[in-house]
């Protein structure tokens, strides 16, 4: 009987294993996410967990300490808390930015250690191994201490689990070290299971230090500490009294105290004595409003939930979001780079408001309250080009809330955002991109926001000639049609203003404001005055209208400062007039000259996949009849060359998802070629079938399908919409979303 | 009719004026308080308002800036926020210590300015004039801005009133500058009428930096600011990034923001635009527990009360306290120095608990709660000698709460206090003085505390040979009878332990613990082993028991470090065996030799009125029959020489009221000559009549009267108690408090 039963159990077991394996093998979109992608080559992504558009996130922090040079945070301009090839880990930061170009956040560093408490991160740091990075989960072994760290996160709470060996174990919370260049923190151990505090961050891109702001937190520990304490390394005191201060400038250990401690270099330690292997979970709630809100975020979002529960919930949330696009065909790596890119587009803009709806208004003069989601981290110079277009198509409710957030900023501040970061306006980069995003959103039929107010805000930015923080040099621009070399990056900035003006003219037209529509349409073409037909390039002019001399079109590659252009040179910016490509063609002398000049950028290696001004260039061959195959070839080549399933698998800074959005679109076979205008251009999809679920709140169709047929390596022969030939490489947003199937046939 | 009425009004007016004048001329005890006394000559008193035993106080702050050198806080060991002869005022500090010997507190600096906001105190500071200092009130003109400042305080709230001229006016709250050497603060403007924050203080006497602790505050303004902001001057950033930080190390102005700012050098400004002369009141509530408690202290103690109301209430409180001793006869100056001294004895120990009873326990591991008053600032090495004896006699309820507070500290910390300051144990000075104070209190009949626990605590301090923070060197002391030169100040410390042991033996006896009584009595005489009868002085011994060589008895005057003694030399300490003066006499060879040696101290200018070890010396002539007149002469001479109605009117540090208590007793004609033993010695009173009201909760008599008769300049001829000759210059506490009249007849 025993034997008989054993057989039955064995059989059941086999069936169960088959079931489990089949579940595992039916990979969900979230299972393809590989957060290690973009963690090298300055991608500036981080491998740790975050919920979709989460406020909190956890990143391993390995950019401090000489062991990590040259990719060490104080040795160069380094904008990420983690670099894949670095070896020296000093903790796990609880708030992080993904894919940005300036060092910021990367603070509130949690670190497990064993043995005596050591508070100097250069001494307590460790090598690490066995990294596992997935959507909503990261784990790693901390070699020096034989501690395993596992991490997950809800929207506003990071959850860390440490498995300690027998003996003395410590959890350090270091508020001194951080990626940000700001200093200053406060900490208070509330009890042997709870810590509260704040850390100053800000001055993004070394700008606006007066806007530095606090991030508040509450940390709850699953096990009561046997001992706890706070440390502070004070600044050195000068003056004759220093002779009486044996402790001058030295770190202080303050045991078992619940007093508030402030300083630049402070932290706390929780210490345990374990008889056997034990785990400690630390849940850290974050808020940009107050410690009370951080505590509420923690309680309401996570409370007593187990690590696995939080992980499961956030994993499910990711899976739901990523499942909005289903892909069929394509290799595992293709799916991995695709879903990881989509994942990267769902990190920023992120949630700013607390669970109770509160958030700091722009300039922090007041605490606001929202019913929906208040979004933050608007790197609009990047994202106006494709990311928001992707949101409008796939996540229109999010895009609507992002537009509402931008309009709220105008209410609070008097201006639309330019590069908004946690309710500070960093004024990084140039141009007036919010108008483009809002117009684009509206013209795509997402209209549940106050468009009249938005329009008023756009006009203010476009027309106020004095004291206009959004559009410096506007007087020259309006009077002369271009910015002169008295301004920073005058050609680039003129182009940016043109693109914005074009978007405004489209919106004006839609709103029935014909005069404005005409006026802004005219303004949008003024870049033409900067076109030097001898060079077939755009070129800066000095104040008297003469060309700037001597002019080297190559100067400005690799982000060098140069006269004329911002983060780029004349080649890279030459085609950045997406709204007037036909006009540009005429300036250049027609299709052939245009095509030749475009090709030259690729041939001369001036093309920079990592920088926004030229990322639409490969698609521009679609404007030349008969040369569309060059768009297909270039796009495919760039995807293969720059986007890969490995740490260096992004071309450079992800720019809060802009590079990733480029990839998502490019692999789907469409691209929003004219920011502000609801139109896509078409290339060969990289999957057999792409199904985009549409949000019924905004769109009539359930979904749209993009299919490919024929030879995947061949040129596009025919494009069909609902079975009928399209006879163009362009399709309007309306036609796309009201269509059923877009079929691309290659031969 | 008009004229007739005018006459009536005139008459009424004259009557009123007469009434007012008579009210004014009938001066109350509080009217004699001159807080300017002790604000020079290192008296370390401050002239601003404080309530009796108040937590909050306001002092003009004039010890920063090169203008104030040499009495500038960073140029020397300076322990006071205000020096009378200094000229450059940089604000009004909201928490202050009175009469201590180390720089501490003197933080949260409020400063009115006009014109553009300037945040550098060296630039915004001003000369000042027209100081008025009274009990509970201080006013001054701030010359540079033509602003009048007036100040009063309740127990936990400082109230400032500024009268501004027309134009832009500012109220600065500077959390950077301070008397303390600690750094670090937090500030948050809550609204245009409220600020909250904290400031780190601690490391008193350059000790125990790890015990640095926060003082929390909430400031409420009577008028809403037109503009407000916060400033921060950050530490300078090092590293390659400094090249991109144009703002590196520079002060930042942050306008109209409600964010939390932390840093070493921070502050806030409230700005007004006034059309005419206007006043702004600022009420600042203090707490050592939390911002919430500071807010509650402010609301419950002061709330919306007018400046005048707060002043009147605190004035009344002072008057009630000071009226416990009524003096008749004596000059106005005599009354002034007397009541100011009594006022100084009622500042420390001061209240630590908040309005709701909460206070930080010792080491800040917990928030405690008290029903009565939790006292703090126990400078016991000073105050065990006379201040607590004065409290037991005149304010026994306060003394009882002080003893209870000390026993609470033992509960929290495992040890009685030594030099406790806002729940940190600074371990400043030597000896084990709490035992003396508790025994003295109990033996005077104040017994509403847990004496058994107190006794247990005393024994722990007296007997625990290892890891005893109160009595380092105890093993040597117990085994050899003295500390050897391996310890700091071995002779002084032996003497201190002897005095404590004597007090313990007295209490043991009273509690029926005969063996302990005997043991500690024996221990209390061990100083005799340090008596070098060749020198007639106490002298240090080295570890093998030999005398320390070479020995210079003069070394150690003026607070020089020396082998053997703490803050003094062999001469100054020679008579500090108050419990065994008869034994000392025998050692010296009898009355004559004793008297000669005592006289030598005065003749050789070794006597230091400003230092505790020898302040009882003038009274020691009472131990030599026929030489009591020398006590009378010396006491009177010292009172006249060192205690005067002027800024330099204290001999040196008031030592939290110890010098003042000496004066109060000396002017009343009695002195508690043996700390721990309920006995007074008698000298000639300096008033015709002194009436001490006794607290019926502790004493049977309503009051005791000390009268003088005959020639005030003559020697004492007869002393009578209740009309009967006393025939001794000593009187027990029981006889005094149960008597009715002590009459001293001089001829």
Automatic annotation (TrEMBL), chains A, B:
PANTHER family cross-referenced by the UniProt entry: PEPTIDE N-GLYCANASE PNGASE -RELATED, SECRETED PROTEIN
Start and end residues of each Glycosyl hydrolase family 92 N-terminal domain: 32-287
Listed GO CC annotations: cytosol
Source organism, top-level taxon: Bacteria
InterPro entries for the chain: 6-hairpin_glycosidase_sf (IPR008928), GH-type_carb-bd (IPR014718), GH92_a_mannosidase_put (IPR005887), GH92_N (IPR041371), Glyco_hydro_92 (IPR012939), PNGase (IPR050883)
Name of the featured protein: Alpha-1 2-mannosidase
Residues annotated as domain Glycosyl hydrolase family: 293-743
Quaternary structure (record): Monomer.
Requisite cofactors: Ca(2+)
Signal peptide (UniProt feature, chain positions): 1-26
Keyword terms, alphabetized: Calcium, Signal
Keyword Phosphoprotein: no
Pfam families named among the record's database cross-references: Glyco_hydro_92 (PF07971), Glyco_hydro_92N (PF17678)
The organism's taxonomic lineage, starting at the top: Bacteria, Pseudomonadati, Bacteroidota, Flavobacteriia, Flavobacteriales
GO MF annotations in UniProt: carbohydrate binding; peptide-N4-(N-acetyl-beta-glucosaminyl)asparagine amidase activity
GO biological process: carbohydrate metabolic process; glycoprotein catabolic process
